[in-house]
């Protein structure tokens, strides 16, 4: 039996890693992200300029000849942003948490409904796509429901790490899948390399979900209003922030978007702005509240004389986004310090090497990084068999 593995996108960038595993009759596509596409882009154009993965039968009228399914490791745009361009109705597998979040984002108009049959894949249960078997393993990343994937054809084993970190709340999940893989020696291990993207900066100290909560708790010690800007898809963090606020005798007030997501994800008794608490309430007793503020509603903060502002990986995420300058200018003009108290969802370079050592694949392929060659070099230096894949490259396994 012959299985081919084709690297379709995302070899030297953080956006849009896509890989296809194919036999004579079946095709499994892993992650379906996109790097950047203007709002009015057409699938045809994005296909011809290589922004969409080279899978013409999914985006045009060209017929496909194989049973096909797409698997989404988690609901970040760089792993699922191309779904909305599907023109052919395609089965798309994701975890229950991802599917629930996706449905809510679509309901709120934050994602467009894809031409997909969304199906749920449970961790540790096999899904059969023709003669290929896919298994998901729970992992740790800064979004709920994140998994990594293993694909087998009965003779060969291929692994897509998805995004992963070792210093989140669930390192035992990462240990579980690396130990499993160690016993089964994958033929190919695609490993993310996000944190190899950045130049060494010793002043940039590592921050974790735990430090987010510590900094948040410290900020709440004052009697000012505390304003936070987290990312709505990191629901576990939202839940932890809410619990920490209650511990500090404050109520965390969510906007409609965040309250809707929390409700959809099964979190009840959350406080919604306008419905449960008003701006006037917060003006009267600022020390009793924490206000979640999305950049879209930045000028809501005009209502407060003073507050502290904790940026926790919400939008705008960094200075590559023009809105970031707007945010910093607004806060500067208000005399409020911008406190960066977010945390990365990605493993440190050392932890990525540790994961590769633990997995001990026959071949490790770094990608999902602006500098995968740095990761490749570091892997080789510790004796890991490494290959830097190129866009469009196909590996054949007989
Ligand atoms: Zn991610
Ligand atoms: Zn990613």
UniProtKB/TrEMBL annotation:
<feature type="domain" description="Metallo-beta-lactamase">
    <location>
        <begin position="15"/>
        <end position="215"/>
    </location>
</feature>
<dbReference type="GO" id="GO:0003723">
    <property type="term" value="F:RNA binding"/>
</dbReference>
<keyword id="KW-0269">Exonuclease</keyword>
<protein>
    <recommendedName>
        <fullName>Metallo-beta-lactamase domain-containing protein</fullName>
    </recommendedName>
</protein>
<dbReference type="Pfam" id="PF12706">
    <property type="entry name" value="Lactamase_B_2"/>
</dbReference>
<keyword id="KW-0540">Nuclease</keyword>
<dbReference type="GO" id="GO:0004527">
    <property type="term" value="F:exonuclease activity"/>
</dbReference>
<dbReference type="InterPro" id="IPR001279">
    <property type="entry name" value="Metallo-B-lactamas"/>
</dbReference>
<keyword id="KW-0694">RNA-binding</keyword>
<keyword id="KW-0378">Hydrolase</keyword>
<dbReference type="InterPro" id="IPR036866">
    <property type="entry name" value="RibonucZ/Hydroxyglut_hydro"/>
</dbReference>
<dbReference type="InterPro" id="IPR042173">
    <property type="entry name" value="RNase_J_2"/>
</dbReference>
């Amino acid at each position: 039996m012959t299985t081919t593995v084709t690297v379709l996108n995302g070899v030297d960038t953080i956006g849009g890693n896509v890989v296809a595993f194919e036999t004579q009759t079946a095709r499994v596509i892993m992650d379906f992200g996109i790097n950047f596409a203007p709002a009015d882009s057409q699938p045809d154009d994005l296909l011809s300029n290589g922004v969409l993965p080279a899978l013409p039968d999914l985006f045009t009228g060209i017929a496909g000849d194989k049973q096909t399914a797409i698997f989404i490791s988690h609901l970040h745009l760089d792993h699922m942003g191309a779904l909305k361009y599907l023109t052919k109705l395609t089965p798309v597998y994701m975890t229950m948490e991802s599917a629930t979040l996706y449905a809510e984002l679509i309901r709120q108009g934050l994602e467009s409904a894809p031409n997909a049959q969304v199906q749920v894949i449970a961790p540790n249960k096999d899904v059969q796509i023709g003669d290929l078997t896919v298994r998901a393993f729970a992992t740790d990343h800064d979004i709920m429901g994140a998994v990594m994937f293993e694909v087998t054809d009965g003779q060969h084993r291929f692994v897509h790490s998805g995004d992963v970190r070792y210093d989140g709340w669930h390192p035992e999940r990462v240990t579980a899948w690396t130990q499993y893989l160690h016993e089964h020696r994958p033929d190919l291990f695609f490993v993310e390399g996000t944190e190899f993207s950045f130049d060494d900066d010793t002043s940039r100290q590592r921050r974790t979900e735990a430090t987010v909560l510590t900094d948040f708790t410290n900020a709440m010690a004052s009697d000012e209003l505390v304003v936070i800007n987290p990312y709505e898809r990191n629901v576990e963090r939202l839940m932890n922030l809410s619990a920490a606020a209650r511990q500090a005798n404050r109520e965390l007030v969510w906007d409609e978007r965040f309250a809707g997501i929390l409700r959809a994800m099964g979190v009840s008794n959350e406080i919604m702005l306008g419905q449960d608490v008003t701006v006037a309430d917060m003006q009267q007793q600022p020390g009793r509240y924490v206000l979640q503020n999305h950049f879209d509603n930045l000028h809501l903060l005009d209502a407060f004389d003073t507050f502290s502002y904790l940026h926790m990986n919400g939008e705008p995420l960094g200075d590559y986004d023009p809105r970031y300058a707007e945010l910093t200018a607004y806060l500067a003009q208000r005399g409020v310090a911008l406190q960066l108290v977010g945390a990365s969802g990605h493993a440190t370079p050392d932890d990525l090497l540790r994961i590769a050592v633990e997995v001990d694949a026959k071949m490790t392929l770094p990608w999902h990084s602006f500098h995968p060659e740095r990761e490749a070099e570091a892997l080789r230096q510790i004796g890991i068999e490494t290959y830097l894949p190129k866009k469009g490259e196909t590996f054949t396994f007989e």
